[in-house]
Design brief:
- The strands form two sheets. The protein has a five-stranded mixed sheet.
- The chain starts with a strand and ends with a helix.
- The chain is of the alpha/beta class.
- 38% of the residues lie in helices and 18% in strands.
- It is globular, with a radius of gyration of 18 Å.
- α2 packs parallel to α6.
């Protein structure tokens, strides 16, 4: 008899799942993690809140990346990119939100939270997510030039680390991607205009 195993990402991360795959499991079906029934809002709703945060970054001429952290059906922290404004290489939306969430909860352990971000986290942000013990990360679009949740690296399920992260990619992907492509198209247009004057 062959089994069908449901896992929470498109990749077989744990040694146990790899071992089961070698023992004749024919398919691995991606699933979304279980959610508490009292939480009626879906991932699209929370990602829309992250997109709103990204709009705040864009209003400051920052790369439009936004993040919210949710616990028990409520946003406990928000952040948007402030790298240029603060001239801070660590001014990423995720880090800002993680710091706020830790202050609000009075703990660096952000268990039972979900982090929503418009762009796939980079290595720095995935490191902070792992250290904060955030169990689930939902992101809008992949970052092929700097992503550490599947694009360049996948730190979410590295067996050498002490925490694993469930990833849910491509939530409102086209909205998140358009926000970034429109921003960079406008930036290129401004640079061309500046060269012509």
């Amino acid at each position: 008899m062959r089994l069908i195993l449901a896992v929470q990402s498109d990749k077989v991360c744990s040694p146990l799942l790899q071992d089961l795959a070698q023992k004749g499991i024919t398919r691995i079906l991606p699933t979304r993690p279980p959610h508490k029934p009292e939480l009626l809002r879906d991932h699209d709703y929370w990602m829309q809140r992250a997109i709103t945060e990204a709009g705040k970054a864009q209003a400051r001429n920052e790369v439009p990346i936004g993040c919210v952290i949710v616990r028990d059906g409520k946003i406990i922290a928000r952040g948007h990119n402030l790298r240029e404004t603060k001239q801070d290489p660590a001014g990423h939306a995720e880090l800002i939100a993680i710091r706020k969430a830790a202050r609000k909860l009075g703990s660096w352990r952000l268990i039972d939270t979900t982090l929503y971000v418009t762009l796939e986290p980079c290595t720095m942000c995935m490191g902070a997510i792992i250290l904060a013990r955030i169990p689930t990360v939902v992101f809008g679009c992949y970052d092929p030039k700097g992503g550490a949740a599947g694009s360049l690296f996948d730190l979410s399920c590295d067996s050498r680390l002490n925490h694993r992260v469930t990833l849910l990619p491509n939530v409102l992907e086209s909205d998140c991607s358009k926000l970034l492509s429109d921003f960079f198209a406008e930036l290129r247009k401004r640079k061309r205009s500046a060269r012509l004057t």
